[in-house]
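pipeline/complex-builder :: batch 7 item 3
reading input block
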Amino acid sequence: MTKIQMNPVIDQILTNIEKVMIGKRDVAELSLVALLAGGHVLLEDVPGVGKTMMVRALAKSVNASFRRIQFTPDLLPSDVTGVSIYNPKDMEFQFRPGPLMGNIILADEINRTSPKTQSALLEGMEEASVTIDGVTHKLQKPFFVMATQNPIEYEGTYPLPEAQLDRFLLKMRMGYPDIQEEMEVLTRAQKVPPIEDLQPVIDLDGLRTLQEKIKEVFVDDTIKRYIVDIVRRTRDHGSVYLGASPRGSIALMKAAQGFAFLYNRDYVLPDDIQYLAPFVLAHRIILKSEAKFEGISAEQIIKRVVERVPVPVQRFVR
Amino acid sequence: MMIKRDFPTLLLYMLGFILLWEWLRPVEKLTDTAHMEVFIIFLLVSLALSFFKMKWIWQFFIKSMYMLFFIHRFYYEGGFFQFSWVKSFSADFIANVGFMLARNWTALSYEFRTFLLFILLWLMVYLIHYWLLRQQQIFIFFFMTLVYITVLDTFTVYDAKYAIVRTVVSGFTVMGMLTFYRILNREKVNSNPASLKKWMAPLAGMVAFSILAGVISPKAAPFWPDPVPYLKAAKDGVANKGSNGPSRIGYGENDDRLGGPFIGDDSPVFMAEAPDKNYWKVETKDLYTGKGWIASGSTSIEFPEGGLVPVYSALGTVETMKETAVIYPVNTRNPLIVYPAGVQRIRNINPKNPQGSHSIGIDTTKEKIESFEATDYTMDFTVPRYKVDDLRKTTAFNPSEMGQEFYDLYTRLPASLPPRIKQLTEEITAGKNNWYDKAKAVEAYFSSSDFTYDQKNVAMPGKYDDYVDQFLFDTKRGYCDNFSTSMAVMLRTIGIPTRWVKGFTGGGFMKYGGENDSLKVYRITNNNAHSWVEVFLPNQGWVPFEPTKGFTNDLRINYGAGETALNDQPSVPASVQKPQEKPKDEPKHPTKKEKIFDFKLTWLKVKFFFIAHWKWMVLTIAGVIVLTAILYHIRGKWLPYLVLMRYRFKRKDETIASAYLTLLHQLDRYGLKRKENQTLRNYAKYIDSFFSTREMTRLTSCYEEYLYHKHLPEGSWQDSRELWENLIKKTIA
């Protein structure tokens, strides 16, 4: 993708993040896409590759409050959402907000906790509010969750139900840095971490304005048709047990709008769709067990689907 | 190898077609297969379908429809879509499968044989396709073709002088091209058109050289004498055995073995412009052998053009009417000279004999006029108007009226003639006292429902069968030869002199001609070949009779005063009345009928044209295909200019849409194909890196704006036209 013509504000945020993160610009970009599109991100990764650092840098850059929840098997729902405690002084219950009541939340290793606690988080993500003791508490806006999960093969995990995975707009991997990057990481580790010195680029109001702007990014009917073609193709693919839902189509469109905005364009290109489709759709399809045994991953299938759908190059005639 | 649809593949297909054609050519010459063009066109169609890689189901459908349509055309009556014929065809089909399983090959019907030939060609087309494109080896087929042609050339009358040259040229070319593709495959080299050209040049040289060497090099004399005359002699020696004799096709000269199916065809023989419909005579025969007719001798004399034709017509005692007809033979080089019964003079032969010899040969025994070159000729003839009283005057042979020798000649019968024929004739003619009534009675006898007119299922008399006897008592099924021969022979048994006449019926009405449309033009085809009977009445001359069921010959008979149709014998008016002109056939809406007639006429004309020119048409179509293929092949040289011209004067901004798509097509043709899943931006980068420019990216971003953003700034086309033109120019080959 052309790295020229980035939106200036976005460019600054990315520069900010790059001050603390070596490489991984694509992950940063995609996180920004999710943040701007009002979605959430699921990172499937091993610990220690810099997820926290990136989310913190992101939070700092937009001047948002950052919370981190480390999920453990004994974590309770109330540990996430907050709890009402009896205050003997006022003679009434007082709500003590949990870590969910922030703007940008890093939910680490969510597949290590019980499904009950998982669903508390997922509900919050979906509804943008939590209900505790009959009282509905609105979550702050913007609200952005970056969840991580260990690769499922690891022991002691409660895999997220596949149907619930589509709460996340994007799912991606960070991966290990390459040799040059990892050497640079070591060099930086000898100095004071620069994260404390990061200056915000915009404030929360500015972020909310950006989020509104993204909705105005133009999506032509040809592009809509292209999205639908791709999503529908996942439904009748031979190795797929359950294809992507219409929610998947919506997600793909929203993500594409965000991505187009990142590149300072006010309309979506098929290139955007092609790039984003694996991140948006891979976790929304369920493979047949035969395909799993053959070692085909959902990302590969989505890529193959994209390869088969012709790109619209003419005006779409209804 | 990937099967492509490029020019070399087309060439391969065409050469394959030529090789296949070589197999069909002798079939046309050596067997009774007519309409070979239909099969050749079938081959062409099948190969074309295979070349265009049409889906198999469509190929199957088109070929089946073609087969069925022509089987219907050849063998069935009624419309193709009335489907009534399908029933009889399927019944026939099942019956024939039974025959096949029983190995009763001779019983197979003609439609089934046609069907089998179609299927065979179908298989051959597939094989050709397989050999050429999958196997890439054709040597076996080529070799078999050579063997086939040479064997036929040696043992039959087929002359393969040019066939062998054609086969070697096309066979060598095909093998050379296939070798090229095999080498490409084996070495895994990317084929490009230039390398094929390099290959083809020496190949063409080599083929030309081998042909030249083959043609001019001295050849050893044959080791054995030409077997054809020997085989012919051997065949004639056994010809009297009751074999499957040849069927009769159209008008034939040889009548010594009658019988078997009659295969007519629509090919026209001549056109006649005459005041009325006439029977056209070609010759008469006088000697019945038990199997057919021969002439007792030949007496050739000449008479001048415009002079009286020495042909017996009605005697001077018969009242006659003068008429004139113009004949236009189709084969002008060697036409069949036909003449009406009362022919007097032949004149205005056009073109006239350049030698100036204004005489025409005639064999007076057979009454056959020798052929002369003419595009048309005029005939004066008289139409007799017989009087019933005069016709009935002759009751017995009287040596004073005609010579004994003459009488013996025309009443002669083979000794082996079964006596029951005479008995039957006597039964039929019982109670009639004069020759005319007797002849009419015999004529009427054939119109009974016992007899069936049939051209197909007609028996061939066996070794000990008499042709007439078999028909009268055994089969009772046949066509004109059966009826006319039977009547002639029957009358001879009771001592009435008869002869057998061959010629054509009046044919089909085409249009009005002459001044004031007073004349009518008839078109006579091979289907109109006919035979009938003439009876000699001493005071009247040769009087024609028409025993064949469903046919009529106009005899103008004047019933004398006092003679009414009521007290006449019932048989006379019944047969004088024309079956075709029964009152119920009178059209209720004349105008409507005329329209249908017109349509039929047009269809006939079209058909006539096709038959006459099909070879030329196939050549033209092939030429057009080749030309189109060549133009298509070199389209890179002219198409971009055409495109540039087309867009030069367009001003609207929307032009960019079609212009950009055209550019995509041209780039595709150039060889820079955009994959279906490739985005425009990505493709543009590829194009730019190929041509090392930035033009495509710039043009593409403009088109992207238009396509995905519905945003078209004013002057977009004006601004980007130069980019576009540069890119189009780059695609010029």
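note: The longest strand of chain A covers residues 82-87.
queue -> next item
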